[in-house]
Amino acid sequence: SLGLYPDFMAKEIEQQPDVAERLITTWSGSILHGLWPSFSLPVPRHVTVVGCGTSLNAGRVVADLLARLGSIPFAAVEASELTSTATVPGSLALVLSQSGETADVLTALDVLHGRGHAVVALTNNPHSALARRAEAVMMCHAGPEIGVAATKTFVAQVLGGTCVVLSLLGCSGAVEQQRAQRLVRDLDRVPDALAQAIGASRRTIPQVLEGLTKASGYVFLGRGPGRIYADEGALKLKELTYRWAESHAAGELKHGPLALVEHGTPVIVVDDGSARMHATIAEVSARGAEITSIGGHGTSVPALGSPLAVALDTTVDWLGPLASVVALQIIARELAVALGRDVDKPRNLAKSVTVE
Ligand code: M6R
């Protein structure tokens, strides 16, 4: 039930620290003991990540981590594109789906099996077709997600996938065991970082809301793993508000999309505090953009007048800007509520898309 929450999305956003805690407690023990219990697959030389929408974004975060920590290359493919996309022979397929019933994902699963790929599934539904048919299953333990917009399942997929990554790298020796154990212990801090992000977002986002409601289009920017979060923020905003949102790698802006930016254009930055991000922010700021910076470093923004910063805890830096997703979800939801949208049931969309 909703309890005191105005909608399921609000409830599911607030549940994220608890979901993270449950998942980390469930899996980190087995990882610390050096083995992924039901995982007898060899360490892959390449990974193919498959999913749709938010699940694909979670998969991209996980694969990026595998590449950064273990130097294992990957390709991320939309499930609907897999039939016409070549895959690397012998690649391990990591297939993510909250529902485990998405038609595009199940078709992709057939294609992957047909090409001889072993499949690790990351799903929130143990009884789903995906869970039944994959070679190994990692459960998300997020509890039922009612809102059509995926929130807590994204966090659960990223953390579940992170446990798979650490387990693989620890077992294979690609990351030395003691370091893998330190990384697992770092994960214990994630629930607090997510709770902190909820508090910081609630305090600061109302200050930008009025400016955001007046705009008709939005630009999201990020760098490195932050780019994936920018994509997720733009997806959430489109889905809930029915307004246009673009997401770009910050450095690509000057190669075209900068032409969109004018006085008052909202630019939402997943801010890594780097000098290059600072330069991008200065560039859009000079054109009168309304900047909202989401990040923990805070170095880019204060020097540039008075853009808004949602300051995040960055203690688990190697994981990428996971806590920024909380701010991005809250921006999308608050804006949708201010516009009178039904945030739990956006138009034209279904929770589980069972047609191709
Ligand atoms: O159940 P799945 O994770 O396979 O669903 C995939 C997408 O349809 C889903 O993530 C969609 O993008 C979300 N509604 C976005 O919030």
Q: Quick summary of this structure?
A:
With 356 residues, the protein is α/β, with parallel strands linked by helices. It is built from eleven helices and ten strands.
Write the layout of secondary structure elements.
Blueprint: H1 8-14, H2 16-32, E1 47-51, H3 53-70, E2 74-78, E3 92-97, H4 103-114, E4 119-123, H5 129-133, E5 136-139, H6 152-172, H7 177-187, H8 190-214, E6 217-222, H9 225-241, E7 244-249, E8 266-270, H10 275-286, E9 290-295, E10 308-311, H11 324-338
Parallel strand pairs: 1-2, 1-3, 3-4, 4-5, 6-7, 6-8, 8-9, 9-10
Helix pairs in contact: 2-6, 2-7, 2-8, 3-6, 3-9, 6-7, 8-11, 9-11
This protein binds 5-amino-5-deoxy-1-O-phosphono-D-mannitol.
5-amino-5-deoxy-1-O-phosphono-D-mannitol binds at residues 52-55, 97-99, 102, 105, 148-150, 239, 352-353.
Instruction: Give the beta-strand count.
Output: 10
First and last CA, distance? 31 Å
Radius of gyration: 20 Å
| Cofactors, ions, other ligands | 5-amino-5-deoxy-1-O-phosphono-D-mannitol
Give the SSE order as H and E letters: HHEHEEHEHEHHHEHEEHEEH
Total helices: the number is 11
* Shape category: globular
Mean pLDDT over the residues: 88
Spatial order of strands in the largest sheet: 2-1-3-4-5
Structural class: alpha/beta
- Binned, the helix content reads 40-55%
Oligomeric assembly: single chain
Main β-sheet: number of strands, strand sense, barrel status? Answer: 5 strands, parallel
Low-confidence stretches: 302-307
Strand content: 5-15%
